[in-house]
Amino acid sequence: MAISLQDQLLKAGLANKQQAKKAKAQKKKATKQDLAASSAEAQRNLENSRKEKTERDKELNKRREEDKAKKALESEARQLIEHHKVRISDKAEIGYRFVDGTLIKNIYVTADLHNQLARMQLVISKLDDKYYLIPAEIADRVEARQPTWLIRLKPEEQPEQDDPYADYAIPDDLMW
Questions:
Q1: Nearest 5 degrees, angle CA 118-CA 123-CA 105?
Q2: Cβ neighbours of residue 175 under 8 Å, at least 6 residues apart?
Q3: Residue-range definition of the domain harbouring residue 121
């Protein structure tokens, strides 16, 4: 077996036992400090990873809650429309045109429904690519939950002062 360098120095008389003990003590002290430092660093890394995980979990839970609330609002709006939609007779012959986004759509209504639409007592709602008529009070409740599902008529704009046709009003029942 090979003899350690420390033992070789002691045999040669280049070092004494006190110096050897002192060197061993310093070596042990240095290794303990290294272990403590690496342990503290590992502890900090572990704590940081725990904090990051809890933040990710909180963010994920927040998104889930938002999705759940969004689905609940959508479900409530859907129920309101389906429960309060106005039934349109099969004998409806008057075509009512309205703008949905960039498209002009047509829905056939009776004369009574046409008057209610013109007086804004009824509102057009879009649900699953179909159009329904609902009362204005219900439309306000739906708008609080899903504003994009409603197609409201814009109120008449005030004519400009120098408009030569300001004296000529367009009737509500004009068919175009």
A1: 80
A2: 94, 95
A3: 18-156
- Supply the pTM of this predicted model: 0.58
Query: Does 76 reside within a domain?
Result: yes
The series of mean pLDDT values per 10 residues for the chain, 176 residues long, is: 70 75 83 78 88 94 95 93 90 88 89 89 90 92 90 66 73 67
Q: Is residue 25 part of a domain?
A: yes
Distance CA 19, CA 46 (A): 40
Residue 83 in domain: yes
Q: Please count the helices (runs of H) and the strands (runs of E) in the chain.
A: 4, 5
User: 80 in the Ramachandran plot: left (φ > 0), alpha (ψ -120 to 50) or beta?
Assistant: alpha
CA–CA–CA angle 145, 151, 155 (5° rounding): 110
